[in-house]
Amino acid sequence: MGELGQIVLSPGMGDVRPLFQDRGLAFRKSDEMSTAYVYEVLLDAAPTGTQNWNLTEEAAGGGPVPGGAGSVPDTVEEGANGRTRKRSAEIQHAIRDDHAPKVYGRAENATDGYNHAIQVAMTASPHVGYLRLDFLDNTGENQLGPYVLIQATRVNYTGQINIDPERMEISGSNPQLLDYLLGPDHPNSFKGYFVSRFSVPFSSYGVSFGGNMSQGQAQGGGKNLGAYVKFDKTVQRVEVRTGVSFVSVEQARKNIDLEIPDGVTFDAAVNSLKSAWLEKLGRITIEGFNKTDAAHDPRTIFYTGLFHALQYPSDFSEPTGNGSLRTFYSGYTDSVHEANDSYYQSWSLWDTYRAEHSLLTLFAPERVNSMMRTLLRIFDWTGRLPMWANLKETNIMIGTNADVVLANALQRGFRGFNLTKAWQAVWKDAYIPPDNDTQLLYYDREPNTPYEVRAGLTAYMDHGWVDNDRWSESASRTLDYAFEDYAASIVAQHANGNLTAAALFNRSQNYVKLWDSETQFMHARNSNGTFTRDDEWGWTEGDKWVYTFNVMHDPAGLATLFNGGREGMMTKLDQHFDGGHNLHSNEPAHHVPYLYATIGYPGNTAERVREVAYDNYNATSAGLSGNEDLGQMSAWYVFSALGFYPVNPASDEYVVGSPFFEKVTLRFHPAATTGGNAVEHGEKGERTLTITAPGAPTSPYVKSLKVDGRDVTGAPVLRHKDIVTAQRIEFEMSDEPTTWGTQGLTPLFTV
Questions:
Q1: In terms of DSSP bridges, do strands 653-656 and 717-719 run parallel, antiparallel, or are they unpaired?
Q2: How far is CA 554 from CA 574, 648, 714, 748, in A?
Q3: 63 with 57: CB under 8 angstroms?
Q4: How far apart are CA 135 and CA 147, in angstroms?
Q5: Tens digits of residue pLDDT in 299-341
Q6: Which of 349, 622, 648, 676 fits 671 for a cystine, CB–CB 3.0-4.6 Å?
Q7: What's the whole-number average pLDDT of the chain?
């Protein structure tokens, strides 16, 4: 995904170097520290020399995908296809240098090996970044003047910049929107605004255009635009608070004054951010874990995962200082709005509908209703729910997965949004094809397309699948649309649209239309009904292996398709994993290890889940095997470590796996049990759940399971209500497979 109106702050000593390729500063990994609330690094103030110009955006012109657009893939020209696999199956393991933990501020002998050094510490509030810059060993004959350079725009974008020595501020704007060619929205007035406020007066200043600097100039407009401010050689510390806004420079300045006003020390800002994260991360206490090497410490992986999973969708609204009133810019309307509500963006829904949104209902429930209202606000503006929204619609990925997210919230008791409108939006997804549906391929990153929603819906409604010879990624679309039909039927039930709910429920059986009984795989189909049987055609970031198991709403029904039924599906799952086909680095694989349990083999799920967790997650800088994808990769680990996972996120069910810890205590926010309604806050309104699994670190198999003393028998399933209202969930673990949970799920359909 492209950047949005970004700015870059770059400290230095000596001569100002405005060009990206000239200003790189070296650092040692042992001099770096990162936490949820402060980042610190020691920089060698001597530039590393001119880097390769070809690495810059200027060299790439518009980049490999100008405006975010992609070219027609070869396989689309031959038939109809799109993405295949975007990530390698290889797991990279990195070993980091061990070093004692530091606190922000100068460490003893910090500058060993550097003639001059800059100690950088950074913290933040929602709309303000706070930098502390310590210019070290800058004494005697070799004194160098400290400076800070701000790059407002790159070579292809025209921005504005202003230096105000009296206020000790630099302000400006940047209109860069890298995915401007994707989707139908055209926010032509978009800008990212900023105000950087310094703690020390400027000794001199100027504006830069590329490599050319105009000393003493206080304003500028143009491309490749920057500004620099210098400080007296005696200055040892400079602090910079940078407010950002998508509304205006004035709002960026207001964000500083409201969030980190003058007089708030760096230490106080660090403590404030630390407290905010502790309010979330401190709600979970872990006891009894596998004492493995530091690179695989499950506590570090778990808390880091929760930290990742609680960052998106991001609140794009900004404070006004007038109570609950918020202001925000919309890329859909290309205008500024106000509301007594938050407004969320960064909706990677194809990724996050799987587990991330279920996680938010547990660990950020106070935000869920507002997120649903944002989805419906976008529907009001555009007539469609978002697919992959990044300020505006990008049409990246496939399917109408907002349908699933709305069903997920409703099934978990969240009702703080307009249910009638939600059903109108979901109904439109299910029954109204996109504009020009039969004229466009809707391939990945096809530029200037209408809202893509369910491309190929014309064919899907006619005969039950998306035609491979008419639309890209047809097989993945068909399977996803079948699941989205199931989700839409859930929304319809909540909205009392029972007749339509039944029709959509029946339509969710369309996954059967892609089953090739001869090959025992799902395959794309052409408009004349023939299977392609070409492994490269029809898939979205996956292949026939993973998508054969892409039936999250009816895995037991899927099992009836295999020769040998459940045993046949188990054999195919074994071939999938043992043959190296399971690429957990991409989301379609995330539910697959849990499918064993859904068809009566929970012991296999326990083994595969632990195998996947160990191979794909660690506590190094290469700690994830694939992109985080706005929390989904980490949500998988958090749920799996607790012992259950939302295989079907449009339901209220969690399939039991294998808990990693002997004891986990969770303090749920009051909103978790009330559907996000306003309730009494504080300890009185909270609920505490204790999950126990004695011996879990070395005993992966579940022997029995109780919820508040009640035996869980039959299918290996917990319901959302069990988790948010119970006081105790008790696993009895075994070091050998057991008979518990071997009944599996009941098929939704008889195939």
A1: antiparallel
A2: 19, 9, 17, 6
A3: yes
A4: 10
A5: 999 999 999 999 999 999 999 999 999 999 999 999 999 999 9
A6: 676
A7: 91
Lowest mean pLDDT among 54-58, 131-135, 431-435: 54-58
Q: In what helix (H) or strand (E) does residue 634 lie, and over which residues does it extend?
A: helix 632-642
Write out the H or E segment, with its range, that includes residue 689: strand 687-692
Ramachandran angles phi, psi of 140, nearest 5°: 70, -155
Please spell the DSSP secondary structure of 558-627, one letter per residue.
HHTTSTTHHHHHHHHHHHHHHTT---TTSGGGTTGGGHHHHTT-HHHHHHHHHHHHHHHB-SSTT-BSS-
Cα separation of 109 and 391, whole Å?
Answer: 45
Count of beta carbons in the 10 Å neighbourhood of residue 692 = 20
Question: How many whole angstroms from its chain centre is CA 494?
Answer: 28
At 497 the three-state DSSP class reads: coil
Beta-bridge partners for 136: 117
SS3 content of the chain, % helix, strand, coil (to 5): 30, 25, 45
Name residue, tokens 């005969």.
463
SS3 category, 337: strand
Q: What are phi and psi of 467, to 5 degrees?
A: -75, 130
* Digit-coded pLDDT (tens) for 670-715: 999 999 886 544 446 799 999 999 999 999 999 999 999 999 999 9
410: enclosing H helix or E strand: helix 402-411
* Predicted confidence (pLDDT) per residue in 257-274, tens digit: 999 999 999 999 999 999
What gap in Å lies between CA 641 and CA 306, rounded to an integer?
Answer: 11
- 206 by DSSP, 3-state: which? strand
Q: Which tokens belong to 682?
A: 């504080």
Nearest to 488 by CA among 411, 564, 563, 430: 430
- State CA 449 to chain mean position distance: 24
Confidence of residue 85 (pLDDT cuts 50, 70, 90): very low
User: What phi-psi label fits residue 466: left (phi over 0), alpha (psi between -120 and 50 degrees) or beta?
Assistant: beta
Spatial distance between the Cα atoms of 89 and 245, rounded to a whole number of angstroms: 39
Q: Which helix (H) or strand (E) holds 171?
A: strand 169-174
Phi, psi of 681 (to 5 degrees): -90, 175
Q: In the chain, what is the straight-line distance between the N-terminal and C-terminal CA atoms, in Å?
A: 41
Tokens read off for 301: 């992986």
Nearest-angstrom CA–CA distance, 550 and 519: 16
Contacts of 284 (CB under 8 A, 6+ apart): 302, 303, 306, 664, 665, 666, 667
Q: Any idea what DSSP says for residue 4?
A: B
Tokens describing residue 204: 């001199």
Cβ-Cβ contacts under 8 Å for 614 (sequence gap 6 or more)? 296
Contact between 154 and 213 under an 8 Å Cβ cutoff? The reply is no
Q: Measuring CA to CA, which residue among 397, 399, 390 is closest to residue 344?
A: 390
**Both structure tokens of 274:** 């630390």
